[in-house]
Design a protein that fits this description.
Blueprint: H1 28-38, E1 56-60, H2 63-73, E2 77-81, H3 96-104, E3 107-110, H4 116-125, E4 130-132, E5 156-158, E6 161-163, H5 173-190, H6 195-219, E7 227-232, H7 236-242, E8 245-250, H8 260-273, E9 277-280, H9 287-296, E10 299-302, H10 317-332
Parallel strand pairs: 1-2, 1-3, 3-4, 7-8, 9-10
Antiparallel strand pairs: 5-6
Length: 335
């Protein structure tokens, strides 16, 4: 039985490769270079850049980066999240007040390619005072719509925008560790008075994420099955990192409806792979996944893409990811 991960010593991390390395701990050189390149931010934002009690005002696009900003920023930042708790983030439309927040904030943290409205607002109002998590790590090609395989150079539509990569980088803890380290450097440059605290917290968060990554590596090392049938194509990074094969029902947009032909294809793939589970998720209707599971004669389980949490929930990124690991181990027959 797996034991819970413990906080590892603070370490620098780098993006995962197609074949996961024996250990994700690396020398400081790679992360320091990334921080140096990103640390050009000075006190941008002008009037209104400081939040309550003089804390640095940070705007986060949706839950995963909001969690990271709060963990790294600690008591020195005031984080405002643009996506409401429990809301599906992909089709977010911004109000004029939210755009003004982006303009005035000392730092805007987001993942380019997830929310086109945020991408547009950052480009117009916070180009020099923003941090795009997807720009910090090696990205994967986007999943071709209605297909389970990735093809280089293929574009997918993300709401009314387009991205040339899969934006779901937060579902790989090792990539999140890289983002945490860079965020610490970015906040330190924006608020030099608290630079040491930001960097220390970033190291602590990166170490926790490194421990989570190792827990996944150990937990998914020996499994009877390797295919995961998911509600939408959110788990490409997790699949690549831990040697799994993602078979998504929908593309990158979780609200898109698969065609009858796609459902028939998926039913055949489920049976051929010997899969026992169709994974639904938390923020969109499970009806399509449930119908597919009935058609294929398998069960359903929830695999959370960590795109948002309900208001008042005690869950956070780490607890949700731990629960996802337990769900995967059960569905895949891991020893």
């Amino acid at each position: 039985m797996l034991t819970p991960w413990t906080t590892a010593p603070p370490s620098e991390t780098k993006a995962a490769s197609s074949t996961p390395p024996a250990s994700i701990t690396r020398t400081a050189a790679v992360a320091v270079a990334g921080i140096t390149a990103l640390a050009g931010l000075t006190g941008c934002g002008g009037a209104g850049a400081d939040g309550p009690s003089g804390r640095t005002d940070v705007v986060a696009s949706f839950y995963p980066v909001a969690w990271l900003a709060k963990e790294v920023g600690g008591p020195d930042v005031a984080v405002q999240t643009l996506t409401k708790p429990g809301a599906e983030p992909h089709d977010l439309e911004l109000t004029a007040k939210q755009v003004a927040r982006i303009d005035k904030a000392r730092l805007a943290v987001y993942v380019k390619g997830v929310q086109p409205a945020v991408d547009d607002a950052v480009a117009k109002h916070a180009k020099d005072s923003s941090l795009d998590a997807a720009s910090l790590v090696r990205t994967l090609p986007p999943p071709a719509e209605g297909e389970e395989e990735h093809e280089d150079g293929h574009e997918h539509e993300e709401g009314h925008g387009k991205a040339h990569y899969d934006p779901h980088v937060w579902l790989d803890p090792s990539r999140m560790a890289t983002v945490a380290t860079a965020l610490g450097g970015k906040l330190a440059a924006a608020d030099p008075e608290h630079a040491t605290a930001y960097k220390e917290r970033a190291n602590t968060v990166a170490a926790k994420l490194t421990g989570l990554d190792q827990h996944y590596r150990d937990g998914l090392k020996t499994c009877g099955r390797r295919s995961i049938v998911t509600a939408h194509a959110a788990f490409g990074y997790l699949a690549e990192r831990y040697g799994l094969r993602q078979v998504p029902i929908a593309g990158v947009d979780p609200t898109s409806e698969p065609s009858p032909k796609r459902i028939a294809e998926l039913t055949g793939q489920i049976k051929a792979a010997g899969a026992t589970t169709v994974f639904t998720e938390t923020l969109v209707s499970p009806k399509v996944g449930e119908a597919l599971a009935r058609e294929a004669g398998v069960r359903t389980a929830v695999l959370d893409p960590v795109e948002g949490v309900a208001s008042g929930s005690s869950d956070d990124y780490l607890t949700i990811m731990a629960r996802n690991l337990a769900t995967l181990r059960s569905a895949l027959g891991c020893s």
